[in-house]
Amino acid sequence: MSRVRAFWGAALGLVALGLSACTEVPTPVEPVAKPIARPNTPKPPQVTAPPRVARPTSEASALLRSYLNQVQGAQLSQGLLRRDGGGVDTPYTDTMLARNFEQIALFNEYNGSFTGRGGASPLRRWAAPIRMDVIFGDSVPPSQRKTDLGNVSSYAARLNRVTGHPVSMSRNANFIVVIASEDDRGEALAQAAARVPGISASSLTPLNNLPRDTYCVVAAYAAGAGANTYTAALAVIRSENPSLLRLSCIHEELAQGMGLANDSPNARPSIFNDDDEFALLTSHDEKLLQMLYDPRLKTGMNASQARPIVQKIASEIVTRGPV
Fold first, then answer.
1. Element (H or E) spanning 322, and its range?
2. Does the pLDDT of residue 238 top 90, yes or no?
3. Fewer Cβ atoms within 10 A, N terminus or C terminus of the chain?
4. Rounded Cα–Cα distance for residues 166 and 248 (Å)
5. Is 190 helix (H, G, I), strand (E, B) or coil?
6. What angle do CA 158, 287, 297 make, to 5 degrees?
7. How far, in whole angstroms, is CA 158 from its chain's centroid?
8. Measured between alpha carbons, how far is 181 from 208 in angstroms, rounded to an integer?
């Protein structure tokens, strides 16, 4: 069974929080001619926080981990989840690239509630710099956290280079990646919503209630004046995924969260294809991202408006070679 990578766009309003502060004015005192000696009191004992006790893994999470390991093993045994980016067996022309871009960038994979297929959609992308951060569920061990954070950081740098759009890691994030288990995903999602304005509690429901064959998902939000300009995104990756599936989720969901919202059965070599042939971003996919952020395309364009420009850009990119 192929992994399901859903994308959800929602237009939300931002809520501005105003904070006020008051300054206490000290009561005047008489000047002192000489320093007042402080009493010789012992220092308070240092309090050490108790060691964190890991939460026991639930049966649901353990069964899910076993299932996902079987999925990865079965896919690898069939020659799927390739990491070579394509080669002589996966040629494509500028015409094919333009067609794939239209299908992937100008259509939605799912509707807003993940209950059905999406349809045609205007071009969507970010205008502001993208600032990514990772929130881990309490059950994710330190070794996995280190690996996953490193993978997200290096991939963010790659997206920055490929698109020419600013993408970086930051605690002041507007694109949060939640990596959590079945046991602690709800808590991690709540942390993410508290940190990013424009993400409502109601929008988290489909992200928290994932079917078993949904290994990861991303939701992008447009909370500003432009309905097609992303201002926030939230990717959710099951920590129960084995290492390659988890890395594959990072590659696809973060790229989808930049505006490549759909999959296409015709796209090859590509991670934007439900056949799972490729696990990691390919040279073909890098070209799609480069096209998405080409300034000749305008946010909000429909397929007919974008098509002649997309064909011209695709011809230039294929002629020019690797990104």
1. none
2. yes
3. N
4. 22
5. helix
6. 105
7. 14
8. 10
